[in-house]
Amino acid sequence: TNKTFTMIKPDAVKDGNSGSIIQMIEAAGFRIVALKKTQISQQQAGQFYAVHEERPFYEALCKYMSSGPIIPMILEKENAVADFRKLIGATNPANAEDGTIRKLFAKSMEANAIHGSDSDENATIEGSFFFSGTEQY
Ligand code: GTP
Ligand code: MG
């Protein structure tokens, strides 16, 4: 599809960087299909990140992702998944390229400001985790 899913993570929301991040997303040519501010429980974070269940950082990640408000969004653009991963940069901000969202706003490997779906299939699954059909325009 031409859609991807993203969330501004608790560190970036707390720091007041949501506006700047949304501005970068729109400037890069993504159209916002759905957007809200919400907070999830550690258990809901566990469901969202179920693919990482076996990873050593799973519990810390779920605690962190439920530690404060987040801003999930569905975005539309040609080649959305790959282009968005490029815009956010590497998982570890130390390796993120200049001009990427993580280079500018991420604090650490865990508190790395933003999420981006890694495939069309996961974009659909992750988008429907947060938004119903009538919330997508
Ligand atoms: P997402 O867009 O958030 O999915 O990031 P990613 O695809 O670049 O990375 P990945 O899916 O491998 O990991 C998911 C999230 O787990 C990362 O964004 C980090 O917040 C966290 N994470 C990944 N690796 C580590 C790690 O080694 N230690 C810790 N504490 N957190 C990690
Ligand atoms: Mg990922």
UniProtKB/TrEMBL annotation:
Q: Where do the catalytic residues lie?
A: H115
Source organism per entry reads: Dyadobacter sandarakinus
Summarizing the function annotation, the protein's role is: Major role in the synthesis of nucleoside triphosphates other than ATP. The ATP gamma phosphate is transferred to the NDP beta phosphate via a ping-pong mechanism, using a phosphorylated active-site intermediate.
How it assembles, according to the record, is: Homotetramer.
Report the locations given in the UniProt record: Cytoplasm
InterPro entries documented for this protein: NDK-like_dom (IPR034907), NDK-like_dom_sf (IPR036850), Nucleoside_diP_kinase (IPR001564)
A GO molecular function for this record? nucleoside diphosphate kinase activity
The reaction(s) catalysed by this protein are: a ribonucleoside 5'-diphosphate + ATP = a ribonucleoside 5'-triphosphate + ADP; a 2'-deoxyribonucleoside 5'-diphosphate + ATP = a 2'-deoxyribonucleoside 5'-triphosphate + ADP
Q: What is this protein called?
A: Nucleoside diphosphate kinase
Q: Which Pfam families match?
A: NDK
Name the gene behind this protein.
ndk
Family, per entry: Belongs to the NDK family.
Q: Where does ATP bind?
A: K9, F57, R85, T91, R102, N112
